[in-house]
Give the backbone structure.
Amino acid sequence: MTLTPQELAQACADSMWAQDEATNGLGMVLQSVAPGQAVITMRVMRDMTNGLKTCHGGFMFTLADSAFAFACNTYNQRTVAQMAQITFLAPAFEGDVLTASAREIWKQGRSGIYDIQVTNQSGQPVAEFRGHSRTVKGTHLPEFSEE
């Protein structure tokens, strides 16, 4: 059986989602996935705020990193972060719903570059994240492996 690129991306996401304790534990929701793309949302809870009553940057990074992970794992090849950086643009507050939209910028061989924009519920950018990916051994769906 052959899967379309979209079906493969969704099947890989479903496999990862079922095992992702961190993403699920923070209440994130996978809104959509496509080859090289993913959108994940997260509501900022009180225990995610810092001493300034804004969302702790580590939680925004984690949201962006999760979208990055789902975007770069859409090809049935286990892929990890090699490097990532984030620029915080504006604060987020308790009750805000943040959306991380990841898209593939470049992919060749075992490496890739992904940009993730994090916005609040008004669509205002709160962070920009860039991740570099690297494939490792293994697949998400062994029955569809090309190995």
About this structure: Helices lie at 5-17, 21-25, 57-72. The chain has a mean pLDDT of 96. Strands lie at 29-34, 37-43, 79-88, 97-108, 111-119, 125-135.
